[in-house]
Each structure stands twice: as C-alpha cells, then as structure tokens.
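Lecture 7, part B: from sequences to assemblies.

Below are the input chains for today's worked example.
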Amino acid sequence: MSDNWQYSRRAVAMKSSVIRDILKITQKPNIISFGGGLPAPELFPAEGINEACRKVLKDRPHEALQYATTEGYNPLRELIAERMNKIGVPCDADEILITGGSQQGLDIIGRVFLEPDVYVVTSSPTYLGAIQAFNAYNPLYLTQPSDDQGFVVSGLEELLKKHSPRLIYLVPTFQNPDGRTIPADRRKAILDLAVQYNIPVIEDDPYSELSFEGQIPEHMKAMSPENVIMLGTFSKLLAPGLRVAWLIAPRGAAFDRCVKMKQGADLHTNTFAQHVIYEFIKTGALDEHLKVIRRTYSRRRDLMVQLMREHFPSEVEFTEPTGGLFLWVSLPEKVDTAEILAKAVELDVAYIPGFAFYPDGSGKNTMRLNFSKPTENEIEIGIPRLAKLFKDVLAS
Amino acid sequence: MSDNWQYSRRAVAMKSSVIRDILKITQKPNIISFGGGLPAPELFPAEGINEACRKVLKDRPHEALQYATTEGYNPLRELIAERMNKIGVPCDADEILITGGSQQGLDIIGRVFLEPDVYVVTSSPTYLGAIQAFNAYNPLYLTQPSDDQGFVVSGLEELLKKHSPRLIYLVPTFQNPDGRTIPADRRKAILDLAVQYNIPVIEDDPYSELSFEGQIPEHMKAMSPENVIMLGTFSKLLAPGLRVAWLIAPRGAAFDRCVKMKQGADLHTNTFAQHVIYEFIKTGALDEHLKVIRRTYSRRRDLMVQLMREHFPSEVEFTEPTGGLFLWVSLPEKVDTAEILAKAVELDVAYIPGFAFYPDGSGKNTMRLNFSKPTENEIEIGIPRLAKLFKDVLAS
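Predicted structure of the full complex, as structure tokens:
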C-alpha cells in the first residue's frame, strides 16, 4: 500500500506552496482577488498565436511536433539573444537554454548547485517559488533584510565569508513580492562581493520588460556577464500557459551542467510552443503586445495607488513600483495579515499575506497586491473593501 | 568565473546521455539511421492538430494560455482515465498527474522515492532515460537479467530481502530497447513479491497501444492497482514535441507527493498543449491516427524482419516484437557493437550499441534498431548495409 512505501526525505519534508493553498481559500464567486500573480487574460493575443500555430504546422510540422535538442530551438535562442542584447545584456544564442517556465530554470539551478547543508543567500522577502524549487535539494538559507531599495548589502560579506554559500538569489527589478528595484550602486556592491568570494548571482528577471516609466538600472548580467546566471520568461511577456522561458549561463561548466540536468529532467521543452513563439516574435507582434500590456498595467497601477492614497488609513504604507505586477503593503506591527484574511474573504476581497515570502516566516504585517489581473472596475471596488478591512482591524 | 563555482555532487557526476552523444556522431548526410526512437514525422496529423489549436484559441484562450493547476487540465485527465479504463486499467481522473513527457514522470518518481544509497531494481537491459532521470538522486542499481520473456524473476526475492529497494522499474510491454514483453505469469510473480516486500512497481508504458497483432498481457497496474505507479505518454501515440504525458499513482501519499514535487519542478505542464490534445482526442482523431501508425509501423517491422532473415549471417539473432518501436539484435560474443559503429557510419548506416542500455555497461555484443522512423525505402537499403557490416566483422 502506497502509504507504507518508503519515500525520500525531500518528499516527506516538502510542503505544498503556501500561495497556492491561500489562492484556493480565496476562490469564491464575486470575490475580487489581488492575490494571484497572473497576467491579464483578456489581453492574450490569441489571434496572433493562432496565426503562428497555423504557420508552424503548415511550414514545418515534422520538426515542430518531433523530439528536439535539449538546448532549445536554435532560431528562438537566436531571437532571444538579439532581444537580450537590445536591453543591454551581452549574450550569444549558445549561452541560452530554453526551459519549461522559469520555475524549471530555478529547479535546474537547484540541481546544479545545491545539496544538503549548503547555503543560499536571498533577500527577505523573496520570491517563494524559488525557495520551493531549491527546497527539493535541501539547502539552508541566509537572508538579508530589505529596505526601500530592496536587498540590503551591509552584512553580506560576513555571510559569504562565514558560510561560502553556493548562490546569491535575487529578483533585482520589480521584485515579486514587493515591487522593489535594487539600484545600480547596490547591484555593483553585490557583484563585487560575489566575484571576490566566487559565488554565482542568480538574476531572476521576469519583469524588467514591464517597466512603465523612467529607466531601470543596468542588468546585473550586463554588469558582470561571467558571474551571473540570468532567467527570463515569456510567461509575463506573452502567455504563461505556453511554459517557455530561458536561462542564460556562462559557457563551460555552468551551461553544460544546466543542459545535462535539463536532459534528465524532461529531455527538452515543448517544441511546438517554441516554434510558435518564434513565429509570433518574428512578425513584430510581441513588441506590439508589450506596448499594450505596459499601458494597461500602468493604468491599473495608477488607479490602485490613487485609490489607496484616498482610502487607506494613514498608518498603512505601500510601495509604488514603476513596473512589474505587484505592490507591497505594510500595516502596523500589531496586525497579522494571515489572521485577518478570513475577514477579507468575508468582505469579498483577497490578497497574499506577506509571511509567505519570508523564508523565516516573519513579515506578518505585510501583504502582496497584484495589479495586472484585476480590471479597473475590480480595482475600484476592491481597494475600498481593503480600506474598510484595515479601518475595522485598526479600530479593534 | 563559472568554472570555479562550487557545484553539487550530482552535477559533477552527471554524464550526458550516451544515446544523444551517439546520435550526434551518426548525424551525416545520406546516413540511414536505425538509431533514434522517434515516431514517423510524415504521419503527424498536423491538420487535425491545427484544427484543435484553432478551436482552443477561439473558445477559451483565457484559460488555455494562462497559469493552471499542477495536476493538469481536468477534462484531459478525465479523457485519459476513460481511455485507461478501456484498456483494462482501472483509474479515476484524480489519480492522474499530467507531466511534461514521461521523462518528467521518471524525474518526479526519482524525487519522490530516491536519495543517495537507496536501491532501484531494473532489468538488464533497461530504458536508459530512466537511469538518467534517477541518477539525479544518486541511487544504486540492482539488475536482473533478461531472457526471451524479458525480466527474469528468479533471484528477485533475494534482492528485495537483502536491499529493501525503493522501486522496481519495468517497461513490461515492448520494452525499449529490446522489444520484449513480460508475460502474465511473470508479471504476477513480480507483483506478488512487490506486495510482500511493500515495494512500488513502476510500469513505464509508452508502447502498449502500439500493439500490431495478438493480445498483450494484462497491465501490471490492472493486476494490482494499489501497488503500481504507471506512466503513459502522448509522445508515441501523437507527437513527442507536445511534451504531454501522464502518471497514475495511488491516491494518498504517493499521488500527493508526486504533485508537490511537480509543483516545485515547473508549476504545471503547458496548458495550451493539454487543451489541444484534449480537443484532438475528443473528435476521435487520436483513435484514427493510432490505426494509421500501427499499420505503418507493423509494415516496417515486417519488412525489416524479412530482410534481416534474408541478409543477416546465421550467427546473428534478433527479436521479433509484435509492437512498439524497437528490435534487438545479438551478435556473437566477440563482437563489440560500439567498436564497429565507426565502420557502420562509413557504410552510411547507424544503430545504438546495446551497452548503452545496461546499467553495468555489459551487453557489448547487442544493438537496438528502430523501425518506426525509417521509411520502407530506407529499410530496404539500410538492412543490407548492416548485413554487410556483420559479414565483414565476422569474417575478420
């Protein structure tokens, strides 16, 4: 009987994603959810994707439906390299490995670098999906606090010296969950230490092309190409259901080991989806689509920030990111956002409690709000509901 | 610099797939390759798939391009359960986890059950992709020899008693690489021991729906549903480029742990591909397609066997499987098929040396031949080339 089989220690220890569990609790009709991290589905360019499918299946069905190389479809790798160079990241197609979403990129990095009792440095809060991916390899975590500018560098050198961590994991631009961006001087300071102590920096970069205004700092991969593994994805730029992302690793041991681990994990990423995305990009449709989603998300963020200013009690603080998908709300220390989630659901509004993004479970008075998925109408109704919740809780 | 980073032991130890390396060596123009394990690309039902894409993108683009649950698209899971029940395997949709190819299914099984110094039982030869997937978790292997009927049961009980292995891994029907099928009495004997020693049997089943004639034995999952995890895939039935497969695990700890491990590995499988396959099956097109590929592959196998009888020297033995994709050739002991591969490539013909399928590197006088991908014309030219190679080698 399967309950009596012997399982691996990792399987016994592994928990389900807190976020997915919370999202399940908050699924009810009429609820307005700021909880997920989903792109706006009504903007998916279904017609352009359909046109790309048609072309691929007409021109090269034998190739697009067949087994393929682990590294990925070469013309797509070349297009990605071109796009990366345009945003200032120097790389060639042969440094790019196509992955099944960035979640798989994180898993591959875990496989290549991690094992029991080695250390990973992250910020606190950080992207929890990364922690979940890494946990399959049983590492330990060292966290640095965040301020307005994200990852705090002070204290990092001691961690590196004392624990020789295997990785420094960062989402430097419009971080999930808090929307913060690490400025150039901090990026440089982190890289200097990473180089000195010979530790790879993982630059997880799903959001930098969703910048609404102003300039984002130079990518860490651009500042120090040999010392950074960068992750990019079409999930936020085009459609997450296609599960196509990429990993850029320095040539040699790093890249080769990523490829071998991917080979054992799933041979290669969906060939058809790779061809379809290639065709879609080639027509210029992705750049057009990016304009549309930037405009829409920026308008939703504007509206949300404006309503938060109008309605939230003055003790409630929040970030005002210039891109990405998320805002971060901090309540007075006495409030536990996980505890009051049930009340929020009663008021038909939902969010993700911030503790879910702290490897040590702190951050109890924070929450993440998503502004890409809810419509303007939903934001107009949902933010006042949240404001009511805060007022009720702060008054009690 | 990345060559000086500290990598995990698994990454340092991991080798590239021998088969993929061999396939690279044998890539040259005009070569006739019996090496790969690919479906015939000229039979891919591109039009039906295009129609399914069009329908999905018209009817439900918001769902089909969005993030989705880890378990998979429910209507597809239901269709698979229905198909499984039709072939005698009792299961419900909620025991089915959609995976990114069966290679990912094997990886998930490795994650859930394996860790350093635990044992896995396989036959020798066995499917090497499984070994590659499992190796990421550093287990040890116990192999049982094969005869005409595949996995030899005698001696298995000692292994189970002595080593308490975590898994018994089998491809019971039309096994890759040797095309052999384990008969019902052996299946039962293996299951009786597995139950007695409380060890899960992994029934890797990519080929059983590619049966050309006669009846195949009852599936092991059907004989003992609570003691078997079964893997099935659309890669051989429809198109490997779509990377959609499934894993059927008993409810409770086994299923739940597989889902959690999949969540950390890549969140979920390509939503769009799942919807497209669902639409394709629903129209009845898959059953039609299966008739086409069974007929074609069976004709190719007939031709190949006939030419092998006519041309191969009498010392050369081979299996005559009644389904699947592969034939298995055994040469006199003195011949090393890896050594003579260079000569084969000179004669413009290729195969996979059998040692690649033996966890202990034995089987040096064997080779695997594929009959699904080469056309009849290629078989007519390629088999006499192989015969010439054998005659040359046996004469020297």
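Note for the exam: The two ends of chain A are 51 Å apart (CA to CA). Keep this in mind when comparing with the next example.
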